[in-house]
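Researcher: Please translate sequence to structure tokens.
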Amino acid sequence: MHDPADSVEAAGPEGDGRIDTNDSRAADCPAPHPGSNSAAASTVLVEVRPGVAVAFEEVPEELIAQLKLDPIDLGLVSVDDRTRISAALASIGNTATVGGNLANAFAGVEGIYRLSDATRACLSAGGALAAKDGANLGAVLANGRIVHQARLIPVAAVSAAEVAVAVGPALAMIALQVMLSQVAGLVRTNIALTSQVLTTMRHGQWADLTSLVDTVDRAVGRARELGSVTTTEWEKVAAKDDDLRKQRETYRLNVGEHVRQLGQLDTPGRRQYLETNARAIIFDAHALLSSLKAWTGYQALHAARARVAGREDADEARLVEIIERETGEEFNSALAETTSLVDSLTRELRIIAELPGRATAPLIGKRKDAKKARLTSAQLLEAIQPLADALHSPAPPLQVPPVVCAPKSQDVERYLRILRWFLEDGETLRVLALDAPARIGAFLDGAKGRVAPAMDKAASRTLIAVTDRRIITARTNAFLGHGEIGHDIPIDRVRYVRAPSARDGNGRSAIDLITPEENIQWLFESDVESTDVTALAAVLAESMNIPDAERVPYGRPTPVEGPPVA
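Model: Translation complete:
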């Protein structure tokens, strides 16, 4: 099956098959080893839909692990549909886009795989994997030689539109199978939470839901074993349509209400809501995933029945695609709301876990019930974290940014541990700063002079975190003690920045920040390097801008770029 012309030695964009380590998306992508055995066994994987790949030939376990592939049971995808997909891809494989020598590779569908974000990044990062004939190459190495290759063909290369026209209903069955597998995995991840969040009031609700889930699971399992959905099994499941719809809608509304409430509250209100409703949030999120699993299984069975009827009825064939489209819309909506809710709770628990004295705060019920029914944030976080990580990969630990504007005696790591959970996906921390504490003693000189030094020592500083999107400020005692922030200023609200060229009489330097809403001044202690203060001002000044609507009333030209000097 392998064409010697596919040797990886001349595969990469530079002819050497190496990863471009300057591309962060490609950093974890597997790369072939130059000069290795070009006659190694080969497997073709084709991304027939975004995030879904069909495998031709068996994929070794080592390659599955290396490419971070998630195997999906072929389940209700019939042998006829597998043959249709192979034939359609073989015909398209004759085009120049994919490479004519690949046409014979599409001998038969051997598996379905969900591609991880990392693998998709490899597929989309030009030159991240060695390329040949429109495909990317991955490899399994043993004793310095390639023993197996994978041809990873992105969806664009196989002309998805042509494939959809040829085998749309068959691909719809694959998509339903992938959705069912994905939500089943999430439910398995979350199963450990059940005993911790169930209460007497919830047991009846849980029993009703699990009964429906079990009914659908058994029907799907039997259909997979038989290779078809029998009339007896379908009639049994079809009778549960109204019950399945009711359960899904109930928990969708419950989760939606949690999300709506959190969206309306300020920071203290959100924290109070999350702590008070932790158990209800966990239960409703898990119940929604379970009801979604049952509903997706039901729709997969429905589509399988329509697929068989579609051999003689074109409308039944089109119905398969309609079922897949509607199920996908419901699936994505429910998953997005669940992810948002679990993210909010997990983020709060992670912040609490970093705060001294908060880890044993009661998260459920009334305080008088704390001895009998208390879950600490650490316990609840340990239980929910596997689900949270499966829904949304956690943010990596924050590294010390390029610019730190703080006294050398200050431990900035403790701020970074908490700040990590406030940043959004892809947000980059550029500057971390701590201003000088308020000099309360200046107001107490004289009769109360002895009190001043102690108050100076305890006075709070201002934490300043500048990212590529915003400026976050917080009083350090509130941030470290309660995880509270003060200002959250979008970077495009910066209008003017001024950094003085000289220090004041106390040896402190200052930065003035002007936004449409307020003027802010930060003072920095004498042991903070002037170059660091200037660097902070320069980062802020990059976004300095006065829109025309705000500039006209003043009749002034736009300020010059860079931190002005007073």
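Researcher: Any highlights?
Model: The chain has three domains: 4-158, 168-391, 403-554.
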